[in-house]
Amino acid sequence: MGFVVVGLGPGNGRFLTREVWELLSGAEIVYLRTARHPAVAELPAHVQRVSFDYLYDTADSFESVYQEIVARLLENGRYQDVIYAVPGHPDMGEFTVTALREAAAHENLPVRVLPGVSFVEPMLTAVSYDGLDGVQIFDALELLTYKYPPTNPDVPLILGQVYSRLIASELKILLMTVYPDEHEVSLVHGAGTETELVETIPLYAIDHSKHIDHLTSLFVPALPYKASLPSLAETVAVLRSPEGCPWDQEQTPQSMREGLLEEVYEVLEAIDAEDPNALCEELGDVLYHLVMQAQMGSETEDFRLTDVIAGIEAKLKRRHPHVWGDWQVANSGEVVRNWEMLKQAEKGRKTAESLLDGIPLALPALARSQKIQSRVHKVGFDWPDIHGVYEKVQEELAELQAATTEEEKMAELGDLLFVIVNLARWLGVDAESALREANLRFTKRFMQVERLAAERKVNLKQMSLDELEALWQEAKQILASE
Q: What angle do CA 451, 455, 460 make, to 5 degrees?
């Protein structure tokens, strides 16, 4: 007793292997996952065909259909040999074959698989592409379970089961998170059949096709430029290699430190300027630094890029048990509290350690000050309300005005800035961002003052303070109206 699973190929009977044909020629009955396949009509005439198509009409999902098919196959396979035929290759996108193997193994029933030609080979022929040059293969329905597709845009992609315009519509939205809307792709209808049709169209238009049916697949060529993390890692590895760049070869984690800090500040500048093109470029510069650090870590066998990615990926899931677990949260405040609690548990901190441990010394002073004050606030070391903060600002300002020595002035100014940062926290404002935006506003206004002075051929150095103030107010009005 047991099962023989056979592949019917992607098209009509000409794709049946000789081994499959000889088996079916001597068979009395064959079970078909679906009779909606071109090869079924060309099976040996004497063979009784039992299709499971009727299950598709009553089930709530494909998964329940496949489970029912496996259950019914097992009922027969326990007391007789069963021949089960599926489209294409049994090990290419056939959930029932995988499930049947697992279920049969539990009952010690043998499963023998006779291969068939899958839809992949005629797909490659239809688009004139050599599969050994690299290709990714996914079930479209499986891909649609992702929010971001796990695909490499540097390698062509084949998607099976694009059987409806609704699936195509959902698929294009997902793929456009990686590929440009205008990226040319190929819808292949009936690959390997006599009615095979190839439509080469922009990605955004795939759901407009009137030819989509149960034999439709999608071929997505690689992007014409490198755009994957592995490609960037390869570029950095080449730069560090003996055949690479002398400058990159000489770098160390410490020598790259200042450059990384500069690039992060340039990212912040692009964010403050609301310049998406600049932000895109500056994020790329930061990504280069991150990959460079990972490459150097790999060379010293301390860690690999995959370790970096695996670490943060696992951490994000651990720290979000309300998303990847059964925790319940009412608001973002609870999310933050849970994050800190989980963080402390992971690090195994002892109660004797300082509450202020772990705040990086390299943070900008305003940002570090705000983190310090947020930490001590958690144990109640803070004013009961914002009025106390305003009073403290006035107190520190008075002490600064009374300071006489350089040391006193520096200390009192530091205290005043520290209290101002706390005021920002009470107001729900990020002090570092607030100062950056103030710098940006001042810069824009002063540059406008310079433009006005140049237009009027006046020298700023020769203008009185009242004249400069008037020009400043005019500049503010001009910028506000833009």
A: 65
